[in-house]
């Protein structure tokens, strides 16, 4: 999370990348994701197995951080076209890594958990595990980045920050390789890759319709926060009204508080209400909360209230997105085979990308660039409504059949 926030912040606040660098990066990432994620995820899981695919996913993330570093460096030295070319290569690597990790990460660790304990992993309960690492690492990372930005030249600051991110990516590769060694499978070249094998993934939609809709709704919410909304906190950091040299630190503090509060609130919601499966009450609660925060964001002008409502929108988005994706992942992983689980995540991620592209395109044509976030929030209301409706329809169908 901390790495994602920092990468987005550096794109949003880098003056050498242009005024609408954040919007351009969002659109290009979506287009690249649409082309790359599904096919890379399918190819690697088919040929390498879910454990090896997870490790390669982190390797792609390392490559992304490397090309981002080179791209930021080139842009700051005045090589604008070279800088953006390297950043686009980084986006390709990021999409490849995301495709691998989304398709294989949870199925791989679920398989490891079954092998070690005899039963599947619980990703809702796992939300409470290793909190000191999940909370402490982003804090140290964002604090270090803010101090470096304030006390060093921008070029050297970016190089120092990205060096930290590169180190963390190496650590991820090492840990995943060590963890998943017991579940690694031999690399195969015998699996056919034709149109039928790709289309076969989509049959999972008939088996888990509510889970796919819920996962897409939560994933879209969380993705829009991590791909765009957090960056707006850095772009509009002047609204905080603090000294210029403290504005980056202030935005980092707000971004971290959003993450911290979402973690604490998410843990409270999960433990307090013991959420274990999709229910009408849960779906309706997500819809109501999304509607309130979206209308609040749309009704504020460009002042401190806008900044605060944006921060609240980010907070709620991470909470809702995290809980729904973990909840639906649990429901699928506890009932599906490994192949169906991989298909579920591949199809859900593809649907997520298509949905974000649709919402972003509609927002771009109907709203000014600086108010695109409003259109995105309205799209989220529709998604949460679809999730709530799907739960009610499935529940009604089940009761009728009984």
TrEMBL record:
Keywords tagged on the record: Membrane, Transmembrane, Transmembrane helix
Residue intervals passing through the bilayer: 24-44, 56-80, 131-149, 155-175, 212-234, 246-270, 282-300, 306-329, 341-363, 375-394
Designated name of the protein: MFS transporter
Classification lineage: Bacteria, Pseudomonadati, Pseudomonadota, Gammaproteobacteria, Pseudomonadales
